Amino acid sequence: MNLNYKKFPLLKIISDLKKKGYTRYFASKEFVNAANERRVYFNEDNVTNQIGTYEILYFAENIEKKIFHQEFKFLKNVKPFFEQDLTDKGVIITQQNCDYIYDIKKEGDKHLINLSITTIMNDSVFVLGNWKGEVFIEGDNMVFDGDIILNKFLVESAKEEPEQEKSLKLYKEAFPVQTIFNQVIFKRYAPIEVKNIIANKSLQSLRKQTRKSKVKPDLKVTYINSTWFTKIVRSEGFSVKGHFRLQACGEGRRERKLIWINEFEKLGRISKARKTKL
Q1: How many Cβ atoms from other residues are within 10 Å of residue 29's Cβ?
Q2: What span, in angstroms and rounded, lies between the C-alpha atoms of 201 and 193?
Q3: 14 Cβ neighbours under 8 A, 6+ residues apart
Q4: Which residues, 6 or more positions from 162, have their beta carbon under 8 angstroms from its beta carbon?
Q5: Cβ of 154: how many Cβ atoms within 10 Å?
Q6: 26-62, pLDDT tens digit by residue?
Q7: Which residues neighbour 34 within 8 Å (Cβ) at sequence distance 6 or greater?
Q8: Any idea where the domains of the chain sit in the sequence?
């Protein structure tokens, strides 16, 4: 997965903030309170300065969709997870240039959240909406109690565009809050699955799943795909072709020398789920 600045422009802003520390101003500061349609001034609280210290996450598209539609069985009942401390803060980037900046803190039996959904226009952060309040479990349901402030342009364009109207309805129902909590729960508590690989089977598809995200070296992005929660077991032996290797040597093993490894038989392998390696 190539996480370049063209596809994910928020990464460029975060990178600049880390290097230069300057503030990016918002494209618009007029918002509408979703509860009463009253226009308000949204205090961004220097969100763009804060995100320079947040963990950056990217969910593979198939995982993101399954979380959104609650297709993972363990997410159908989140009540037990809310008994845990879900304190977390991060930036979730998406391919739709619609990114999530969140800060979750536990307070008693409730969690507090400050969530902004942003997009990038003309090299500036453009906030589509902000959700700030308490999140708790009532019965078996996740409930948000707080303020929802939506960008006035989003509200006005929804009157003319059906797709925008659908998004606006979800925003007013605080659906993004539920999505973020499900993603945080998934990142921490997704059950580990075991995948057995038979001998001599091609691992091409597996290599595609485990390939590293390409991103600028000053940023670290946690890439969550199927290998995040999958333990891969290859119990039978398999042949390894002859190959060259740069072997560590010298004082402190700081030097390298090129050596040839003859073909050999390897006795199986276990690759742990990536979430257990953190």
Answers
A1: 14
A2: 19
A3: 51, 52, 56, 91, 219
A4: none
A5: 20
A6: 555 566 666 666 655 545 555 555 677 789 999 999 9
A7: 129, 148, 149, 150, 171, 172
A8: 9-189, 193-219+226-277
